[in-house]
Write a structure and sequence with these properties.
Layout (H helix, E strand, L loop, with lengths): L2 H24 L3 H6 L2 H8 L14 H11 L5
Length: about 80
């Protein structure tokens, strides 16, 4: 084994392990996972707030207004 293949062994093992974790977390079948682009994989694994279509979280004032508007007079 030469120096370059020895240094790539940890990367290869880590990449294989992480690809399996990502595929299971996403519920993607192998063909979909292996055909995904790096950008598709990154967007799919990003926290929901990173997606452009995700609305801003509900603030306290809006939450209290929602409770008040949905109140039926019972506590």
């Amino acid at each position: 084994m030469n120096a370059s293949s020895a240094s790539s062994a940890p990367f290869t093992a880590s990449a294989a392990m992480l690809s399996g974790i990502a595929a299971r977390a996403l519920g993607w079948p192998p063909d979909l996972f292996w055909n995904a682009t790096p950008a598709e994989l990154a967007l799919s694994l990003a926290p929901p707030a990173a997606h452009p279509s995700t609305p801003a979280p509900l603030g306290r004032a809006d939450f209290l207004r929602l409770i008040e508007s949905e109140s039926d007079g019972r506590n």
